[in-house]
Specification:
Blueprint lengths: L2 E6 L2 H18 L4 E4 L6 H12 L9 E4 L1 E3 L10 H8 L11 E2 L7 H12 L6 E4 L21 E4 L2 H7 L15 E4 L2 H5 L3 E6 L5 H9 L17 E6 H4 L6
Parallel strand pairs: 1-10, 2-3, 2-6, 3-5, 6-9, 9-10
Antiparallel strand pairs: 4-8, 7-8
The structure holds fructose -6-phosphate.
Length: 247
């Protein structure tokens, strides 16, 4: 594997460096096919990208975006839906044409939705996929035990993931409202991206980052699959890097 590790002072620097990474790739390839995560981790990166677009530094008009995952059972405009998150934090502020923004549908026939989404990703695949990481080592909604060759599909969320999903900015009114299932790009789908950018911030992620990068490659730690990829960039702040032996 080729892993470039960038350890930043704090969350803001992580966000700036992540935006630098995307901006560089976009300048090299204006037709970037970009996989996008939700959650707390990438908020600052999206803010940076939106600011740079507003200053006229970036052009997303030929970019295709692909959301990593979605809760099962939510309408795309539900306050907690990932489709809405990407819309609110990124798409509505930049010039990705609406027909070029893709997400897996969390309603209807799951197997059909998964097939449709894989077909959209298609043989061209993704140029970059950006990932956060769960405290249990999940990437997307690929929870411990997920097969490394899994394609986009319907999955059950780990209890820990459901707990972490309920917070003041989550868009869920109660803890019980957090869906039990999701639809996610599989680890197999993720590993086919040409390059992967993994982001993490804060002490709560330190153990997961250490296990992902330096632990055994095992389906018990979904992010350890990234060790099998040839082009991974990891941007983490000092708190998330705290347990790494090799800094
Ligand atoms: C989100 C996703 C998840 C998150 C992970 C970390 O689309 O796929 O894997 O990246 O749960 O979430 P935060 O960033 O909220 O700590």
């Amino acid at each position: 594997m080729f892993v470039q590790r960038i350890i930043t002072k704090d969350y803001d620097e992580m966000s700036r460096r992540a935006a630098d990474f995307v901006a560089d790739k976009l300048r090299q390839n204006p037709e970037l096919r970009l996989g996008l995560p939700t959650g707390n981790t990438p908020r600052g990166m999206y803010e940076q990208l939106v600011e740079r677009y507003a200053r006229g530094e970036l052009d997303f008009s030929r970019v295709h975006t692909f959301n990593l995952d979605e809760y099962w059972g939510l309408e795309p405009d539900h306050p907690a839906a990932f489709a809405r998150y990407i819309q609110n934090h990124f798409l509505r502020h930049v010039n990705v044409p609406s027909g070029q923004a893709h997400w897996p549908s969390g309603k209807g026939d799951a197997a059909e939705n998964a097939r449709t989404y894989e077909a959209r990703i298609g043989s061209e695949g993704l140029d970059i996929i950006i990932l956060g990481i769960g405290v249990n080592g999940h990437i997307g909604f690929n929870e411990p035990g997920a097969a490394f060759d899994a394609r986009t599909g319907f999955v059950q969320l780990a209890e820990r993931t459901r707990q972490d999903a309920f917070h003041p900015r989550s868009g869920f009114a109660t803890r019980e409202d957090v869906p039990i299932h999701g639809i996610t790009m599989g680890i197999g789908t993720i590993l086919e991206a040409k390059s992967i950018l993994l982001l993490a911030s804060g002490a709560s992620k330190a153990k997961a980052i250490q296990r992902a990068l330096e632990g055994p490659v095992t389906e018990e730690v979904p992010a350890s699959a990234l060790q099998r990829h040839g082009d991974v960039t990891v941007i983490v702040d000092e708190a998330a890097a705290a347990r790494l032996a090799d800094k």
